[in-house]
Amino acid sequence: MTMAGLTDFPNELICVLYTYMLAVDVVNLFATCKRMHLFMPEEAVWRHFCASYGVHNPADLGGTTFFQVYSKILHTYGPLMGLWAGDHPYTGSIIEFRVDPERQAIVGEGWDLDAEYETIAQGPPTLPAYVVFMTISLPLSQDQATSEVSQSTTAVISWRTISSETYEEEMWAQTDTDYFPTVHVLSPTTTSTHLQYYQGITEQPLFPKDVTDAWFDSRRGLPRLVVEPSPVAHEDTAVPSPARPTFHLLSLAGNHVRPMAFCIKRAPFYMDEREIAYPWRDIFDVIDDHRNLNTDSSPNGVNCSDGRYYPLRSDSRTGISPDDENWDPASLEGLWLGESHAYVTEVLWVAYCATTKVVSAYKIIANDQCQIPRGVTFWQFDCEDIVRRSDVQTSRTNQHPLRWRRRFRGTGLRTTFLDETSTRIVPIVAIVPGCDSIEIESDEHCLLYRRYPGRNLADEIERSEFRREYKERLDWW
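The chain above was modelled as a monomer; its predicted structure follows.
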């Protein structure tokens, strides 16, 4: 009796089997024989793989078939969808990729938290402004009037540029690698960024310490590009003279292995009349804004400021009212926006450990004061160390009875500008006044936090209009 093979199955069953396989395995199966190759243009197969990236209509990416959209864009760049945390020195950064049907492209957006104009309307911590810095789209034919997709297998990457004279913004397609950034996937590395100041050399907190970090989304992959070696560390660690304070970045070897990441490398040359709008704030601009220092991007020849991007979780829990008897501290897990001081918003990932009963806040984006850097545990509290109303005589919040139901003792970090030696641990009281808010009280500050609600495109249009009108008023003054 002859055993039936896969080629003997009916077409409908074979299409169902494909949905249980990885796209790479499906492509390899198509190459095994003519019978399997006949399924290459089968739309049901590619509709399934496009749906895994949230694409349910090929027209959203300017295509006519799911096979076209997946093979030219999503197979390579689909894994970019979602949030990414950058390890840029001190400040960190967040970028986000999503499908934009209006642009018919995957858009990369940087989180802009330096939005003082929004504080007038809603107060800190403000929601981020999402600024498009790049797009990934289907290649069009030379005859743009036909809007036909080119037979090229390479997607078109365009970058946001700003005129150095008129400040006019425009998306320019990448035509070469000399004047435009490039996207790369980098191998694991043992190097880490160090800050070199006249006081000495300070290693930045490892970011991430491991793929098991609470904020790290280990379920997601990287763009399907050739993995390149990470830059090699340099051993030149000469400290500048105290008579001439200078701020450097150094990439030095360590004992800890950081995982693979994707990187946006800066263009090696500058355009004459336009500049690239990068999705992060350069640490040297931050330093120059606050101190009169000499800065150097990298005296050892390794550009540390490009940064490595790692997948950031966005699956926040649904909040539970603190007045509910079934309140669970695990409901606090997720991204939170925090007020660090006037007009500045930070981003933290709040995690709960069921074993230790401790809630911890990890810094993803730090403020521009260069005090507590990204990657550290900014504060934490013990859910079993409850503050009773009778324990405190006076408090800024003692007039709100419900808040006393969820008050816990914990610890937080304090430091000063670029001075790790001044870092100290201070006692705090964590208050959970609502399902989507946290307050951290210490002897020096009362910090406010709100749960990140996710994207609301309709609301973003209104906020963009408000920002435009406010900027126009500033220009008028």
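The chain has a mean pLDDT of 78.
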